[in-house]
């Protein structure tokens, strides 16, 4: 079958099943069964799909997902996360879009505590969204910043995804992790600026309310008590890797035990809230893992059918300059990111992109950061975006997935601008690791 | 009538253990015009999980696969012995070892053994802490089932990590070393976080070309010959591989990897431990025909 | 009948708790492994593989419970745009498709499990055990998922309560 037709059939079929309202995981499963029948040779192919799903999920590299989620859930159900967000809330005085700014600030803090964009989004979403909606915040200015800063968790270390990309692409992982810091903060700054400007121009987006006046010390003290000590979790996760005690995957386990111990130290741990944490971790992990299992198999069928190769070969056929080639690769990633998860994107594109990037003489750390930024953006690009679903999952019942989609558009635009900046000024990515190496 | 077979490699395209397979495919597509063609679907995890590739070839979802025996020990535990074989594949084809193993391939996993490649690439132990005798006590060594028995017998703490974690684990000292063929550590980027290589080499890597038995039986003699000729051509690559391995070892040294070379009694003990630990484990897991296979593969 | 339904829901919830405890255990055991390895006493070579199999088993065996809770995310752009009657028809279409997909998956999953059982092949890694132990999870999860979609068709649809207790 012609690759264009295969691509249309697989992607089109999947979009159709998703549009009917079939849960995402089952839409993938359904199209996998169809695709296997056509491309993997009938019934043997269908059995292979079942086996592939087993293989896709029996993977230690996926362990950080439930573990980082557990970290977030523990901080969350013990109430420690809320105290931390309250503390950050205290630091911020009256500004336009105040709670959205708290979301960005809190998001950046949690980005350095967890490697999971999903946990980050879930914590911020459930901590702040109800309050925002209650105070009459427009969904765009309420949910948009939460998902946008939620996704920064994969740029600012620790980051499960940066580790995965670095390992698969043979890049220096510590350098890649450090290279993500500046772009991550740059995005946070862009979001803050946007929120302030937008809410000043249109105050009805985020109705202002009175913030209690209090002395400086009262503002700062809660942060010293509830935010600063939490950074020991960051120290455990990053420190255990840097000291050579744990592999990056194992550090996620240490992180969740550290989160448990931190909450224990605050005297907030009960059997009940631990059981709830575990149950909620299981619920979201299973939802996410089931999608990853099904979508990895989908990507394999996409590769097997020749559709993926066809698409990439078609692009190579244009004989592009290195700048145009870079743009083409980023566009392909953005496109794939609308339909699949980050792990699948990495698996599908790396075999083509790494040789292409090396041949074009790109700085590989820079290229790795660009890939990470595009994957970060993909977390919120519809129709398939993991954070969109997490947001939908934690939002009150009145919010439709359409509301969630719409709230991300301005932030996707901002992220694209930051991406363009890094393309034009590579030092934004490479500067920090180069400086540290020196 | 021209038949098209599909093919998948267990390794990413263009990497060391895929390259000869890709040459094989090009050869078949050149000489097999009008008879048999191979449609290469690519390699590595993007097409199919490498550990599922053996199953896929058995069921015929994939018709030709390129993968090391270590990826399908579940289907054919006996394949593990190939790493310890003291004969080349050409010799094995003459002394009956290949025929015995191929029968097992056909009976147990419904595939025909077409060819073996890269059998002249041996394994080495790579370290980040120096040793002065064949004793790994106190060292954390990353293993796969290929090396586990041997390194444990030398006193190492065996550690399993995902391939993706190896770089960081080495960089940060979570593991002190690993086993790997003489080629490939540059491709993986591990060379930059490796300080020592231990000589002599032990065992050998080998990657098998297997074809689904129904697909094989469905070919006529001329078509089979196209595949077989190309396969034999690949099997002649041993000498070239030795040259490449030597070049790669030199490249490692130029990249600053120091050589810890055992000689005399130490070398003897090192290699003897490799042999004994490996065969002991093999015979334990294959009580029925373990001894028979050992007899076929050792001098 | 309603007793049976509540017993069944309780069974699914039990699976949920077991899965959660299993994930917590992974965090504890992996941490313990790291600590013991670094003080040089012991390590658990079987742990990595056990975690891998647990991830698969938890994902599959808890998926029916997650479906029961209405927590498998879905794109509801179309459903929320349509008038009530059509939205209901679309729901039925989606659940019928889900039922068919899971029934098919159960069928082919069972074939995989039966073949693995007949062949009796052992998985040869650090842990050695028959492959069918793993593959048997496919039809079990498949049946539970199919049942859940059937229940949704029969009108048992829980609105996503993911926020409970959050
Ligand atoms: Na992070
Ligand atoms: Na997306």
TrEMBL record, chain A:
Residues 12-428 form the TRAP C4-dicarboxylate transport system permease DctM subunit domain. InterPro entries: DctM, TRAP_DctM. The keyword Protease does not apply. GO terms for molecular function: transmembrane transporter activity. Its main location: membrane. The keyword Transmembrane helix applies. The chain crosses the membrane at residues 6-39, 60-82, 102-129, 141-164, 176-197, 224-246, 252-271, 283-303, 323-353, 365-391, 411-432. It is a multi-pass membrane protein. One of its GO terms (cellular component) is plasma membrane. It holds the Pfam family DctM. Keywords: Cell inner membrane, Cell membrane, Membrane, Transmembrane, Transmembrane helix, Transport. It is found in: Cell inner membrane. Belongs to the TRAP transporter large permease family. Part of the tripartite ATP-independent periplasmic (TRAP) transport system. The complex comprises the extracytoplasmic solute receptor protein and the two transmembrane proteins. This is TRAP transporter large permease protein. The lineage of its organism: Bacteria, Pseudomonadati, Pseudomonadota, Alphaproteobacteria, Rhodospirillales.
From TrEMBL, chain C:
It is a multi-pass membrane protein. The chain crosses the membrane at residues 12-32, 44-67, 88-108, 128-147. It is found in: Cell inner membrane. One of its GO terms (biological process) is C4-dicarboxylate transport. GO terms for cellular component: plasma membrane. It comes from the Bacteria. One of its GO terms (molecular function) is transmembrane transporter activity. Keywords: Cell inner membrane, Cell membrane, Membrane, Transmembrane, Transmembrane helix, Transport. Residues 26-154 form the Tripartite ATP-independent periplasmic transporters DctQ component domain. The complex comprises the extracytoplasmic solute receptor protein and the two transmembrane proteins. Part of the tripartite ATP-independent periplasmic (TRAP) transport system. Belongs to the TRAP transporter small permease family. This is TRAP transporter small permease protein. It comes from Pacificispira spongiicola.
């Amino acid at each position: 079958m012609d690759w264009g037709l295969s691509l249309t059939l697989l992607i089109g079929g999947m979009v159709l099943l998703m549009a009917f309202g079939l849960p995402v995981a089952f839409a993938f499963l359904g199209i996998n069964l169809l695709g296997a029948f056509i491309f993997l040779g009938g019934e043997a192919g269908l059995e292979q799909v079942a086996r592939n799903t087993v293989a896709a999920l029996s993977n230690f590299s996926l362990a950080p997902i439930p573990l980082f989620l557990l970290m977030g859930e523990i901080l969350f159900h013990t109430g420690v996360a809320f105290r931390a967000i309250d503390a950050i809330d205290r630091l911020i005085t009256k500004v336009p879009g105040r709670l959205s700014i708290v979301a960005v600030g809190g998001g950046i803090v949690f980005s350095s505590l967890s490697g999971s964009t999903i946990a980050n989004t879930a914590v911020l979403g459930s901590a702040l969204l109800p309050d925002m909606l209650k105070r009459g915040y427009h969904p765009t200015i309420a949910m948009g910043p939460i998902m946008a800063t939620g996704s920064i968790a994969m740029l600012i270390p620790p980051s499960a995804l940066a580790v995965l990309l670095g390992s698969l692409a043979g890049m220096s992982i510590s350098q890649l992790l450090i290279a993500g810091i500046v772009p991550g903060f740059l995005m946070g700054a862009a979001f803050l600026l946007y929120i302030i400007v937008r809410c000043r121009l249109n105050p009805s987006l985020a109705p202002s309310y009175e913030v209690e006046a209090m002395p400086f010390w009262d503002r700062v003290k809660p942060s010293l008590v509830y935010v600063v000590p939490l950074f020991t979790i960051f120290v455990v996760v990053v420190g255990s890797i840097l000291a050579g005690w744990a592999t990056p995957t194992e550090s996620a386990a240490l992180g969740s035990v550290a989160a448990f111990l931190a909450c224990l130290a605050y005297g907030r741990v009960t059997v009940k809230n631990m059981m709830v944490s575990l149950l909620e971790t299981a619920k979201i992990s299973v939802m996410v893992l089931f999608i990853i299992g099904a979508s990895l198999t989908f990507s394999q069928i996409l590769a097997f059918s020749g559709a993926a190769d066809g698409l990439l070969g078609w692009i190579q056929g244009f004989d592009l300059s290195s700048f145009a080639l870079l743009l083409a690769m980023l566009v392909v990633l953005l496109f794939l990111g609308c339909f699949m998860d980050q792990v699948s994107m990495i698996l599908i594109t790396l075999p083509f992109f790494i040789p292409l990037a090396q041949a074009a003489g790109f700085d590989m750390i820079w290229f790795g950061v660009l890939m990470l930024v595009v994957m970060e953006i993909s977390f919120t690009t519809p129709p398939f975006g993991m954070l969109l679903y997490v947001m939908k999952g934690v939002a009150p019942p009145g919010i439709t997935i359409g509301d969630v989609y719409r709230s991300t558009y301005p932030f996707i635009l901002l992220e694209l601008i930051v991406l363009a900046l890094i393309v034009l000024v590579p030092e934004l990515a490479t500067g920090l690791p180069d400086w540290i190496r020196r | 009538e021209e038949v098209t077979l599909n093919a998948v490699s267990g390794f990413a395209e263009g990497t060391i253990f895929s390259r000869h397979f890709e040459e094989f495919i090009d050869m078949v597509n050149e000489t097999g015009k009008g008879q048999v063609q191979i449609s290469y679907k690519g390699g590595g995890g993007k097409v199919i999980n490498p550990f599922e590739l053996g199953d896929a070839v058995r069921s015929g979802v994939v018709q030709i696969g390129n993968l090391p025996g270590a990826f399908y020990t579940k289907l054919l535990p006996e394949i593990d012995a190939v790493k310890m074989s003291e004969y080349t594949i050409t010799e094995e084809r003459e002394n009956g070892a290949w025929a015995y193993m191929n029968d097992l391939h056909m009976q147990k996993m419904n595939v025909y053994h077409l060819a073996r490649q890269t059998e002249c690439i041996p394994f080495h132990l790579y370290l980040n802490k120096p040793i002065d005798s064949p004793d790994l006590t106190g060292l954390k060594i990353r293993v796969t089932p290929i090396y586990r028995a041997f390194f444990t017998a030398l006193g190492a703490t065996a550690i399993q990590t995902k391939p993706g974690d190896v770089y960081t684990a080495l960089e940060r000292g979570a593991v002190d070393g690993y086993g790997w063929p003489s080629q490939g550590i540059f491709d993986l980027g591990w060379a930059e976080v490796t300080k020592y290589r231990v000589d002599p080499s032990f065992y050998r890597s080998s990657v098998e070309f297997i074809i689904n038995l129904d697909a094989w039986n469905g070919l006529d003699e001329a078509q089979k010959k196209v595949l077989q000729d190309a396969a034999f051509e690949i099997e002649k690559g041993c000498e070239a591989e030795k040259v490449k391995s030597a070049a790669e070892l030199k490249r490692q040294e130029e990249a600053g990897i120091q050589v810890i070379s055992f000689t005399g009694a130490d070398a003897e003990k090192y290699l003897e431990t490799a042999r004994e630990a490996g065969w002991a484990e093999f015979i334990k897991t294959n009580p029925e025909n373990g001894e028979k296979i050992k007899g076929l593969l050792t001098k | 009948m309603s007793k049976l339904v509540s017993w069944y829901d309780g069974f699914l919830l039990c699976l949920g708790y077991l899965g959660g405890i299993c994930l917590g255990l992974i965090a504890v055991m992996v941490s313990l492994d790291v600590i013991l390895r670094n003080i040089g006493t012991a390590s658990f070579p079987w742990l990595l593989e056990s975690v891998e199999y647990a991830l698969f088993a938890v994902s599959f065996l808890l998926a029916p419970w997650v479906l029961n809770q209405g927590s498998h995310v879905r794109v509801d752009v179309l459903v929320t745009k349509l008038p009530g009657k059509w939205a209901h028809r679309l729901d039925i279409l989606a659940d019928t498709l889900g039922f068919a997909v899971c029934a098919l998956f159960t069928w082919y999953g069972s074939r995989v499990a039966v073949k693995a059982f007949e062949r009796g092949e052992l998985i040869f890694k650090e842990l050695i055990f028959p492959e069918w132990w793993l593959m048997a999870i496919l039809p079990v999860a498949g049946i539970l998922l199919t049942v859940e979609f059937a229940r949704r068709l029969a009108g048992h649809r829980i609105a996503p309560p993911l926020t409970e207790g959050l």
